[in-house]
Structure formats: C-alpha cells, structure tokens
Specification:
The chain is of the alpha+beta class. The chain is built from 4 helices and 7 strands. The chain has one domain. 28% of the residues are buried.
Length: 171
C-alpha cells in the first residue's frame, strides 16, 4: 500500500474510533448507569449494559460499525415508556396507538422509520413496572434523544411520587 494511502486509512481509523468513543459517551450521559459490558461485545464493536434493580430497567445497547444503536431494555415502567415515547414522537405516532400511549393500555406498539431504517417497538405490560423497549439500527442522535427522554420521564415521575408521599397525596 502506498504510504499516502496507508496514512489516509490510519487517519480514518482514528476518526472512526473517536466517533465511537463520543457515541458511547453520549449514550452513557443520556442513560446513567450504562457502562461497558463485562462480556465481550456480541456482533458490535461496543456493547453497553445497564442493570438497575431500583431504577430504569435493565438491558443492553450495542453500537455497530455504522454508528447505529440497537437498544433492548426490560423492566421499564409503562408510564415512563409512554411519557418518553409521546414526548419524542408525538401522540399517535406508533402503530396500534391512536391516542397518547399512556391511554392505550397493555400491548405492543411499533414504528418503522423508512428514512433511517430504524425499527422501534415498545411493549406495555400488564405489570406496570415491566415494560419493554426495543430499538434496532437507530442513528446515535435518535438513540440518545430516546434514552434521555426515558431518563427524564423516570426522574420526573419518581420526584412526583416522592413529593406526593411527602405531602400525603400519594396512594
């Protein structure tokens, strides 16, 4: 390989590695508790895990070579999912949801983004603390936006519950 070609390839690799690091940083800031997987990455160069027994679910996020994220989160409160999805996408955006997601009740709700190739699925469970979020092939900025919305909804709802318990208005 010509030295100029080899140098250009090395520069590309450095930029690619830096972009991967910045993607991981943004995702970790959007969802506190997210950290590198203790097991080797699966099919992706970076795999992040979260396990919060008292928090916002558990699961993993993989970042592929094209800087797209695949998110699998379990045990996320239904109300948190509903608030975050409606905040990010708007009311009635997902298939099977013609109204606010919190008013739709248990079930599976889907959205396929033809522009980015992303696939979204949220399942609201019969158990209000056992919802599921699955997103495939989503560009990092969209993944960060969704994770940040989930975190904000969780924090707001937890604060409301704390305030309600403090003033005696919570059940």
């Amino acid at each position: 390989m010509k030295p100029t070609v080899m140098k250009a390839l090395e520069e590309w690799k450095e930029a690619s590695d830096h972009l991967q690091d910045r993607a991981v940083n943004a995702l970790r800031l959007a969802l506190p508790g997210l950290d590198y997987s203790k097991t080797p990455p699966y099919c992706c160069p970076a795999t992040l895990d979260i396990a919060q027994a008292d928090g916002l679910g558990d699961g993993r996020i993989c970042i592929d070579d094209d800087r797209r994220a695949t998110i699998e989160l379990d045990h996320v409160p239904n109300a948190v999912i509903a608030e975050a999805v409606d905040e990010v996408f708007g009311i009635g955006w997902f298939d099977n949801a013609d109204e606010a997601l919190e008013d739709c009740g248990p079930g599976s709700y889907f959205y396929d983004d033809e522009t980015s190739g992303s696939e979204y699925e949220v399942r609201l469970s019969e158990n209000p603390d056992d919802g599921h979020v699955a997103v495939s092939y989503v560009p990092i900025p969209y993944a960060v936006e969704l994770l940040d919305a989930l975190t904000a909804a969780y924090d707001r709802q937890r604060q409301e519950a704390t305030d309600g318990a403090r003033d005696g208005s919570a059940a």
